[in-house]
Each structure stands twice: as structure tokens, then as C-alpha cells.
Amino acid sequence: MTCLFCEGHGPYSTVEHIVPESLGNKRLVLTGIVCDDCQAYLGKEVEGYVLSRSPIGAWRVLAGVETKRGRRPSFSFRQPNLDKGRIPDRHPANDDSVTLISSEEDECLVELDNELAQQAILEGTKTDFRLVLTPKILHMMGRFLGKVGLEMLARDHCEVARGSRFDRMRRFVRFGQPTSFLWPIFHGTTTQQPAAGPAEIAVFDTSVLIHGHDTYTLSSLRLGTEFWVVCLSDPYPRVAWVGPR
Fold it and tell me: How confident is the model at residue 5, as a pLDDT?
């Protein structure tokens, strides 16, 4: 049996969480399908980046999900001072001074390290905070969503997930190849009403839809009132699909 991502031969000594444990996932797991090296790499380089830099990490704070070490989560909007690597990772319109903090009382606190922004809020001229999704964030979110989708598919249809029509996504998830490529992500919001409190926010819901036998396979991930969809078998699907409601 070869690894779902690198197609190596193991070892397989650890359990793979399809959705990170730090998003509250305890039940969606795989054994003997993703090798130890891929688990370690994807956990640190892909999941770690997405949870610390993308809206997915912000939803973890809003839901008040503790880290694996039992700590209350926080999320900083801050982006690097300078771009590193080939994919841009900074935007001047981003609100770097914002940090979201989950309190012990299950409240989401906003820490603002910018006196001008604080004054603008008090004057009513600033009414929102901007987390700009740079090409690097979108690149890594695509890899993360592809990872979740392929593992969800493997959970119920292991041999299908190993099929050659998923090879492009497989390489993109594991190796980020090509490094300049952005796998299209479809984004939307649900009609779910705001919860009475942060602890009642639905943390995640994920599913895979196979459209036909050899056509498109779509994977969706919902956090709170947002959802993201990628096509695992083709970056540019040509069929209409309605997201979760």
C-alpha cells in the first residue's frame, strides 16, 4: 500500500486527522493511508500556515476551540514585513494591527495595536477589519482544502482517491507544484443564523460530492457561516454546483 500523497511505502505509525484536531476534529481519521513523513510535513507546513494566516484560523478563535495543548486560541492579522519566496505574501491594505483572542468566558476579544485605527473606530470612520488574502494564502488554502478533500474521499473510497485523475491535486497538496499555481477556490456564505454565543458556532462540516463516474469530484469545507469548495479532479470544472445551505 502506497501513501495517498507521496506514493511512498510508509512507515504508517501515526493516525492522520482529516480535519486538524485544533479545529475540534476527533472522529474523522485515517490509518495506514498517509505516511508519517507526509503527516508531519502537511501538519507543519500546510495546516500550520493556514490556521495561523487564513480565515480558517479566525473561525477557530470565534468558535473558542482550544489548541491541542489546551490553550485558548488567538489569531493575528499580521503579515510578513517583506515577501519571502516566489509567491507574494503581503498586501498593503491588510490590517496588520488586529489580533483576535478567545477568552476564558468564551468571548472573542479584539486587540488593536494602532492608535490611528483606534481613533478612527471611535470616530466612526472605520467599521471593519481587513484580512487580505494574498496569493500565498490562497495557494496554501488550496493545498489545505485539497488535502482535506482527498482524505475524505479516501476514507470512503480509498482506491478511487488513489486514481490517476487526482494526481495533479496530489502533487499540489504534497509538493506545492507548480509553486506559482493557485488552485481555484469557490467561496460563499451560508444562511445559518448567528449562534447565541461563540461556543455554539458550528466549527466545521466537510463533504465530498462525486459528479458522475469520471467527471468532477468536489470537496467542501464549512466553518461557521463560510464555506470553501475545490474541485479535486480538475482546477476548472464546468458544472454548476450549489454549496451547503
Answer: 97
